[in-house]
Design brief:
334 residues, mainly alpha, Rossmann fold, 2 domains, 3-stranded parallel sheet, two-stranded parallel ribbon, globular, binds tryptophanyl-5'AMP
Length: 334
């Protein structure tokens, strides 16, 4: 088993990232046997599609590394690194640009969402972003890629690119990766709008819980979260047309080891006046240890850089044979 996944180091790690992906990363790392390997990386090369100052970008990489370690990624057991330190990602992405089709990229919903009406004014990087993502995965022969629902289409593209490259060049080079998407928490929604996903790029910080938020901020964000006036139903089936309520119940269940049904049973007949303080308490208790570890790590630049440099060395070694074989298959090297 080769587990691999990445996160963009823009903004804070939020509850959507945590429940959709990072918690699975940690579980897979913790359950790994001696034959398996986990690779987790900061997709800083992808972040060029977002405007940031040089200083901000450098700070973001370290902070996201600290946040991942605080959330449970152990750099002694998993290879933790940032993409920019492993040039093989960019090199393989270029080779895969010869395989990926414009029509495939035109179908990517994330590009359409991010580009909006101004497609012509967007960077080429935003358009070919999924090819770099395919390179990230294929470079390590990843078998399992734990991600949230919004990355499913990008992984399907990676599978298509892998299959086409293997066929076009008559090789059996790339492993076809499987996405690992959690059942209940695949898509955590914004606290302000149950129709949009919780996201780093939402201009309102009230829309998300950051893993770095202090106790009071968490309580306040949950208190102000959008809900409806109805009491909680007997079972989760009664939440179907209540997106905000469904989201909060799902979050509660995911931190208490319950299911949306068991949470409904526990709070049946009660309104959000009773449910929200209970949810806030669960979140405060669950996130406090992560925040405390993050605070202790985040300013130790030397230690974080050392971890990322060591991780990048291991990643580069693991990537090397596949990159060479890809150059060889295309006929750019022997
Ligand atoms: P990114 O940085 O947007 O998100 C990191 C991970 O968090 C998940 N996620 C969510 N899950 C549930 N609910 C949400 N509201 C939510 N928001 C984010 C994402 O699905 C993701 O798993 N393109 C990727 C980074 C990437 C990558 C890769 C991932 C680059 N190369 C290779 C896997 C493999 C991204 O921008 O994720």
């Amino acid at each position: 088993m080769r587990v691999l996944s990445g996160i963009q180091p823009t903004g804070n790690l939020h509850l959507g990232n945590y429940l959709g992906a990072i918690r699975n990363w940690v579980r897979m790392q913790d359950e790994m046997d001696s034959e398996s390997q986990c690779f987790f990386f900061l997709a800083d090369m992808h972040s060029i599609t977002v405007h940031e100052t040089r200083e901000q970008r450098l700070r973001n990489v370290r902070e996201m590394a600290a946040a991942l370690i605080a959330a449970g990624i152990d750099p002694d057991r998993s290879v933790l690194f940032n993409q920019a330190r492993v040039p093989a990602h960019a090199e393989l992405a270029w080779l895969l640009n010869g395989t990926a089709r414009i029509g495939w990229l035109n179908r990517m919903t994330q590009f359409k969402d991010k580009a909006g009406k101004d497609r012509e004014g967007k960077s080429v990087g935003l358009f070919v972003y999924p090819v770099l993502q395919a390179a990230d995965v294929l470079l390590y022969q990843a078998t399992h890629v734990p991600v949230g629902e919004d990355q499913k289409q990008h992984l399907e593209l990676a599978r298509d690119i892998a299959a086409k490259f293997n066929t076009d060049f008559g090789v059996d080079l790339f492993t076809i990766p499987d996405p690992i998407i959690p059942k209940e928490t695949a898509r955590i929604m914004s606290l302000r709008d149950g129709a949009s996903k919780m996201s780093k790029s939402d201009p309102s910080d009230m829309s998300r819980i950051n893993l770095t938020d202090d106790d009071d901020t968490i309580v306040q964000k949950i208190r102000k979260a959008k809900t409806d006036p109805e009491p909680l139903p007997e079972t989760a089936a009664g939440l179907e047309d209540r997106a905000e309520a469904k989201n909060l119940v799902g979050i509660f269940a995911s931190f208490t080891g319950g299911t949306p049904d068991s949470v409904c049973a526990q709070f049946v007949g009660q309104g959000f006046g009773a449910f929200k303080p209970a949810l806030a308490e669960v979140l405060v208790e669950a996130l406090r240890p992560i925040r405390t570890r993050f605070e202790a790590l985040k300013d130790d630049e030397a230690a974080l850089d050392a971890i990322l440099i060591k991780g990048a060395e291991k990643a580069a070694t693991a990537a090397e044979p596949t990159l060479r074989a890809a150059y060889g298959a295309v006929g750019l090297m022997r």
